[in-house]
Each structure stands twice: as C-alpha cells, then as structure tokens.
Amino acid sequence: MKITSIFCITLLCGILFISECSAKNQTFIAQKLVVQIELTPFQKKHQNPYFSLWLSNKNKEHKTLVVLREKVKWLRDLKKFWRNIARENRSESDAVTGATNKRKNFNYTFEIDTIWQDISLEVVRENGHRELIYLPISTSKECVKGNVEIVKICVQLIITE
C-alpha cells in the first residue's frame, strides 16, 4: 500500500513537471483581423444605413463584431444577421451595437481566435436596397466589390508572435 501511494505521487509529480515544461515552450500567437468597409455615398434625404459584421465557421457558429443601427426594431431588416445571430442571442448583438452615422468608410481591427473561417457583411438602407457579402479570412489581403450598398470590403488576417 505504501509503495503504491509513493508510486502514484512520483507519477503525478512527473506528469506535472512535463506539462509545466511543455507549457513554457508554447508561444502565444496573436491574430488581428483588419477590416476596411466602404459604403455607397447617399443623399441627405436618405436614412443612414444599418450594417452588421460577423464571423462564422464550418460548425455554423457565429460571433458578432459590429452592428450599426438606429433602433432595436430595425435589427430585423438585417435579415441574415437576425436569423443567424440576433434573434437567438440579443445580448451578443447589444454588446457590439452602435448608432449609425453618415461616414462611408469604416476601419476596424479585431483580435480573433483561430476557429473562424469566414466574415460576413450585411448592409440595409431604409427605402433602399440590402446587400450581403461573404468573404473567407486569409493572411493575404482580400477585397470584394459590392453591387449596390457596398462599394468594397477588404479583409486581412495579421498573425504575430
């Protein structure tokens, strides 16, 4: 019995020592996602656009990055965002929500995990059109031109150690 307990203690100490040594050798890799959005200019008589920007992966998990809107009731106009994220998880969309403004260029930098593969941008304008763009995340700068509400969106993943 005494030998068994000594063996277990020795084995446990060895496991803790090995895990401690391997943890020190691991380096932290930070990932920054740089997003540049250019929206179509609009006249004074039009309302400011609403837009949402979110990440998704192959497991159909989503993470909201930015939501610009005037009132909560207008979130339903961002149809894809509403169906996938906001309807089920209002607290997540409320945490990143801001008021709309008249700027047409938006620049964001986010620190993200490695599990995300795609980024989505949905733009809706009252009495206007709606547009949805999906873009894969990669280390090379990827730009996609929009049709109506979005001039272009550029995305680049920057990895630093």
What is the CATH topology? Immunoglobulin-like
Give the total of beta strands. 9
**Rg for CA atoms:** 23 Å
Q: Sheet bearing the most strands, described?
A: 5 strands, mixed
Query: What is the CATH architecture term?
Result: Sandwich
The helicity comes to 10-25%
Cα(first) to Cα(last) distance is: 48 Å
Tally of distinct domains? 1
DSSP strand content: 35-45%
Element-by-element helix/strand order: HEEEHHEEEEEE
Q: Are there runs of 5+ residues with pLDDT below 50, and where?
A: 16-26, 93-99
Strand numbers in spatial order across the main sheet: 4-3-2-6-7
Shape descriptor reads: globular
Give the class-level CATH name: Mainly Beta
Separate helix tally = 3
Mean pLDDT over the residues: 73
The helix-and-strand class reads alpha+beta
Signal peptide: 1-23
Pfam families: DUF2271 (PF10029)
InterPro entries: DUF2271
Organism: Colwellia psychrerythraea
Structural notes for this entry:
With 161 residues, this protein is of the alpha+beta class. It has a single domain, classed as Immunoglobulin-like (Sandwich), CATH 2.60.40. Helices cover 24% and strands 39% of the residues. The chain has three helices and nine strands. The strands form two sheets. The protein has a five-stranded mixed beta sheet. A hairpin with a 5-residue loop joins β6 (118-124) and β7. The longest helix is centred in the N-terminal third of the chain and has 24 residues, at 2-25. It starts with a helix and ends with a strand. Residues 1-23 form the signal peptide. InterPro entries: DUF2271. Keywords: Signal.
